[in-house]
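ARCHIVE CARD
CATEGORY: sequence design from structure
SOURCE FIELD: tokenized fold
FIELD CONTENT:
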């Protein structure tokens, strides 16, 4: 039956059974409806499994439904990204006070180290200028 299912499809325009034996995947029915064989088998397989919410033989309705489904698929990554950002925001709000308490001493230590280095440079040059008063004036000229 699996082989038969891959060789037989029903035209979605006139509902005639079409048998494809070999050759190109592009098939034309006697009514003029042209279809891609693999795509038609996929559509009819999803219809058998009841995964399509509309009648596949009503082409106008099916095409609108397929367009709507494609739009949902295109928007899905954006919703996932927005949901992920929201989760991160909630985590930050939840854990930020604890992190501030835990990391506060390290932040203070880094800031103090940076200020100490700056202060050491300023003190060094102030002491150097007092020890060598004429030397700094000559370099500026």
């Amino acid at each position: 039956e699996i082989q038969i299912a891959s060789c037989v499809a029903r035209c979605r325009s006139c509902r005639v059974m079409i048998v494809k034996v070999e050759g190109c995947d592009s098939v034309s029915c006697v009514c003029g409806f042209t279809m891609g064989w693999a795509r038609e088998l996929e559509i009819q397989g999803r219809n058998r499994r009841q995964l399509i919410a509309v009648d596949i033989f009503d082409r106008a309705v099916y095409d609108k439904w397929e367009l709507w489904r494609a739009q949902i698929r295109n928007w899905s990554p954006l919703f996932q990204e927005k949901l992920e950002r929201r989760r991160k925001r909630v985590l930050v709000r939840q854990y930020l006070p604890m992190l501030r308490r835990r990391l506060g001493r390290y932040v203070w230590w880094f800031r103090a180290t940076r200020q100490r280095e700056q202060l050491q440079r300023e003190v060094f040059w102030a002491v150097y200028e007092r020890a060598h008063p004429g030397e700094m004036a000559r370099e500026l000229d």
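CARD ANNOTATION: The beta strands are 8-10, 17-19, 26-28, 34-36. The chain has two domains: 1-57, 58-130.
SHELF: design records, drawer C
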